Amino acid sequence: MLLTVHTVVMSVAITAELGTPIRLHGRSSLLEWLLHRVDRHARGGAAVVLSGEYGSGKTVLLEQLAVHAGLPSLDLTGTPGERDIPFAGLNRMSGAGAVTLPEFPLSAPEPTSYQRLWRELGRQLGDGPLLFRVDDAHLLDPPSLRALAFLARRIERLPVLLVLTITTEAGYDHPLGDALDGIPHARLAPLDFSDSMRLLYGRTDFPPSPEIAEEVVSRAEGNPLALVEFARALTGKQSVGLAPPPRVPPPGGRFRGEVRRRLWDLPDRARELVMLTVADEELGREDVLAAAPLAAGDPHAWTSAVRSGLVVTTEGGLRPAGELARSCLEVEACPGELRDARLSLARVFERAGDHPRALRHRAAAGDEPPERLVGQLERTADSAERHGEHETASRLYERAAELSEHDESRATRLLAAGRGAWTGGDPQRTLAMTRRARTLVHSAGPRGMRDLLRGGIELCDGRPATAVRQLTEASTALLDTDRELAVTALMLAGDACCVAGDYRGYYELAERAEWLRSPEDSHDTALILRNLTAMSATFRGRHEVAAPALREVVRLAERVTGAAPLVLAGNAAFTLGEPATSYRLATRALRTAEERGETAQLPWASVYVSLAALLLERYAEAESRALEGVRLSRALGQRNRMIDHIALLALVAALRGEPETVELRLAQATEEGLFSRGLGRPDAFGSWAAACAELAHGRPVRAVHRLRLMDYGIGGFNPAVRVLAAPHFVEAAASCGEHDDAVPLLGAFDHWVSSTRSTTRMALSHRCHALLAERAADADERFRAAIESHRQSGSGLELARTELLYAARLRRARKPTAARELLDEASAIFDDHGAEHWAARARAELRAVGRSDAPRRSKEAVELTDRQAEISRLVAEGATNREIAGMLYVSDRTVEHHLRNVFAKLGVRSRTELAKLLR
């Protein structure tokens, strides 16, 4: 069958009569749902409206329903030519076996037609249930569709499975308006990448190479019909990359034919509006009014254009209904009409002072000689790039490439367009540019740029192990033509090694970086190369070498201009145990990326802002930054960065003592691809978070086990995170008597701390030695030293945890008075930080030393914690508990718990009262 793969795995969303979304996976699930409805109602029936864009496989699904249901079928298909003839649809119905229906007089009143349809169906259904299939219901005449909708809303009284299909993207707000309201609705979503690949390989005569297959799948945009027609059109040369694959489906196919029909069925003014969207993908209403005042001012033209499904409305403007539709329109349009649209837009943007956009449209219209235009386009693109307008630069470079005569120059300009798209945060466009340049690349420089772009995308949304290879090759190829880009590739390769846990590969890159260093390097280049050698020494445990190199990196940061070097400097400061400096540099990296339009760098910089906030014990900020990082990474298609942020969210919850939230967030990271993508660094952070959660639960043996898994995870041994987690390993090992395992790791931690001179980490070192001390006097001395260092560094939550551990030891030594003094302060600190689990532990210790009442908090009881304030704000905005849980990556039960506390603190009894109070 044409869409076998599609029908097995596609997700279908059904909105039931009560408005509750039901999630079904696969077309077979849709059939099971319908049959279940029939079984549940005995001789009753069920109805569903099945919608999807043109070519999404609705007709094929109807065919498969007939096969799987094993029922006689009654069929009806809407026809545009009879849409204005009353009851033409009902008069065309054909049935299997003895199923027949009477003719409906063209002048019959509608109530009469409903009664006749109802009576006749009831008479014909004496022998059993019937499958009633209505394809293209949006093309039926209004009376017929109203009669069928009337039947569908009362279908439970007849043993009929009624399935109506409609094409939604055609904008058919049919003359009937809401005629189909009240009927369960299912939508066929576009095919995802893996299903598209399987369908493509199943339909082509010449199996394409992976790169060509990716390009075709990207162009088909998940439309099964377009994908099948692309597959049939692929030639042998195109499949192996000796010729570029087709950009649009073949001219004789159904998909192009449908686009052509819709375009030329439009009135002239509506077609003029469509031509404007073909010329420019993002137009505001003011642009449209200025370029085509008569068409834009004609409500009928605007409505016709939208109803055609060729364009969609945006906030105040128009855009094409997808790149596939735009590409088809470009080849099907009248060349003169399209040229007029481009010249009109060029004049509009010239008057508005937007010269880059005006130049792009003049170039597309062929208004000047190509040689002259190419030079103008490149100069304007360079200027746009310098001003951070990377999307504009990308479009200009692409237009210059289309006007270029030679392969090499065309490839160079396409790759420049890809670089602009990547920097501006559009990885899909970047991939499209690299694919178009693939067959044109012949020399090392363009090949290196192509590998750099593909490797950067793979690092953020693929397998980092593959990115290491691509980026290393890119660095080698670019070295003779663009030293700065070569160093950038080396930097990204290093980050890919860290994400993958490939530290041996990192050491090799660091050796190359040391060889590349030169006194002539810019500050940005010098910092990148120095950071590689400094972090390599850190990972090897050579802290006496690493510390001065890391400090040099931090010093160089004061003179760099790029966002990426600042991210590295923030990490260097974090490694040195200087959280305030790390936070300052990471936030500066974020600000620089925003100012320079380097959108692709924002999720990376956000990781280190969150880490620095964590080290500063600003847990609420660390969590909010990580949540924002998740949203931003998802929007930019950087799934690996998103998993980085989810792992950090788990660590924040672990350090706060929220085991349930840790478990939920780690499960989310796994679902997003933590293991399938081979992400070693977030895996190590996840093991650390899981161990902290076990400690919070009072299960030290399991915590030790979790921390040992860090050495055998996806990335193997992770030296950086392992040393960072050493204090928790020591705490867990000391609690279950495994001192022998803790001593060597504590030695490594001490070696690192002594080189960084971090007061915060020195306090943790003292605490670890106190936990392992055999003599009470040694333990007391170390605990006191730890408390003093905590106070100097300002690390409140770690101070409270140290006091809690020390108090437990004092209680066992029968010194309750000293223990109570420590626990009073610890309990107040835990309350102030919203660490409810640890606060409960402190209160339990207080009861054990004879204190029956809880200590007073250091803040007014009515003050909300950061988490409670955030949940309250979302409630006031109208979010449900489930929606809040999804946004914050916590459980529904956690949200309910915090809301109960909020209600009690603020004296409110409902969400409505809370919303009013916060307005």
Automatic annotation (TrEMBL):
<dbReference type="InterPro" id="IPR027417">
    <property type="entry name" value="P-loop_NTPase"/>
</dbReference>
<protein>
    <submittedName>
        <fullName>AAA ATPase domain-containing protein</fullName>
    </submittedName>
</protein>
<dbReference type="Pfam" id="PF00196">
    <property type="entry name" value="GerE"/>
</dbReference>
<dbReference type="GO" id="GO:0004016">
    <property type="term" value="F:adenylate cyclase activity"/>
</dbReference>
<dbReference type="InterPro" id="IPR000792">
    <property type="entry name" value="Tscrpt_reg_LuxR_C"/>
</dbReference>
<dbReference type="InterPro" id="IPR036388">
    <property type="entry name" value="WH-like_DNA-bd_sf"/>
</dbReference>
<dbReference type="GO" id="GO:0003677">
    <property type="term" value="F:DNA binding"/>
</dbReference>
<dbReference type="GO" id="GO:0005524">
    <property type="term" value="F:ATP binding"/>
</dbReference>
<dbReference type="GO" id="GO:0005737">
    <property type="term" value="C:cytoplasm"/>
</dbReference>
<dbReference type="InterPro" id="IPR016032">
    <property type="entry name" value="Sig_transdc_resp-reg_C-effctor"/>
</dbReference>
<feature type="domain" description="HTH luxR-type">
    <location>
        <begin position="857"/>
        <end position="919"/>
    </location>
</feature>
<dbReference type="GO" id="GO:0006355">
    <property type="term" value="P:regulation of DNA-templated transcription"/>
</dbReference>
<keyword id="KW-0067">ATP-binding</keyword>
<keyword id="KW-0547">Nucleotide-binding</keyword>
<dbReference type="InterPro" id="IPR041664">
    <property type="entry name" value="AAA_16"/>
</dbReference>
<dbReference type="Pfam" id="PF13191">
    <property type="entry name" value="AAA_16"/>
</dbReference>
<dbReference type="InterPro" id="IPR011990">
    <property type="entry name" value="TPR-like_helical_dom_sf"/>
</dbReference>
